[in-house]
Amino acid sequence: MTIDSPTLSNFSLPHSNTYTSSRLSHYYLMTYFDAHSHRRSPDPSTTTLVCVRISASTEVFETDGICTVGLHPWDVTEDWRDAVDIVEDLTQEDLVVGIGEVGLDRACDAPWQHQVDAFEYTADLAERVSKPLVIHCVKAHDELLRIHRFVNPVQPWVLHGFVKGADLAKQCLDAGMYLSFGPAVLRESPSLVEALKMCPADRLLIETDDEDKAIQDVYAAVATLRGVTTQELCAIQQQNFETVFKR
């Protein structure tokens, strides 16, 4: 497999979307952190964590900034172990700061038992390589919580694209997970708004996922719903982002 990625020396906060330590944060009044996206923002005030999907057939890995790598549950087949072996190799790259998106999806066609086996193995891998997990979960939160209890992880688990209500949010938060909220908050579903409001500030992340929405709009909505300023929210997000995706 060919790896084509820039070196860390090519990156500095004013000219890229990678993040640096908080010592440099004073250069900007507000920096937006997008905790999960499938495209990198060209806006220099936005730090985007791009999700790179890996499969057993992956031969070339390219990234233009920080990213996560993972075997998406939609892509799980009987050769899932080959894909996860590639993921394991890529976790040694400097710009790979997490594993994901990975997880469980009962609504897709991928064989369920292979999904469970791949996710359990990947969760163990995250512990071995000290990387956080970014998780996709659809109609499988019972299994997700079971596996979390079994693994009892030290590394952070980020449940991305959270769109459920407060009851499930509480279960996931009580288990120690982070919740990442995306453009769905713009639609202001009462149950989702309740979950957003009850999420502790230090367990909250914000993302755009694969939607064509500006991260600034998502921040503005989250800030309004939580009763804080956008600048306060940016400061909280920087702390959370650097805590979860530490390098």
User: Strand sequence of the main sheet, in spatial order?
Assistant: 2-3-5-6-7-8-9-10
- Under CATH, the topology is which? TIM Barrel
Beta-strand fraction estimate: 15-25%
If classified by CATH, what would the architecture be?
A: Alpha-Beta Barrel
- Proportion in helices: 25-40%
* Biggest beta-sheet profile: 8 strands, parallel
Average residue-wise pLDDT: 90
Poorly predicted residue ranges: 5-28
Overall structural class, as computed from helix and strand content, comes to: alpha/beta
Number of DSSP strands? Answer: 10
CATH class: Alpha Beta
Characterization of this structure:
With 247 residues, the chain is α/β, with parallel strands linked by helices. The chain has a single domain (2-23, 30-244), classed as TIM Barrel. The chain is 34% helix and 20% strand. It has helices at 80-90, 112-129, 141-151, 166-174, 190-198, 215-226, 230-244; strands at 2-4, 32-37, 46-53, 60-62, 67-70, 96-105, 133-138, 157-159, 178-181, 204-206. The strands form two sheets. Strands 2-3-5-6-7-8-9-10 form an eight-stranded parallel beta sheet, with helices on both faces. It has a two-stranded parallel sheet with strand order 1-4. Helix 4 (166-174) links the parallel strand 8 and strand 9 (178-181). Helix 1 (80-90) packs parallel to helix 2, helix 4 (166-174) runs parallel beside helix 5 and helix 6 (215-226) crosses helix 7. The protein is globular. The two termini are 24 Å apart. Residues 5-28 have low confidence and may be disordered.
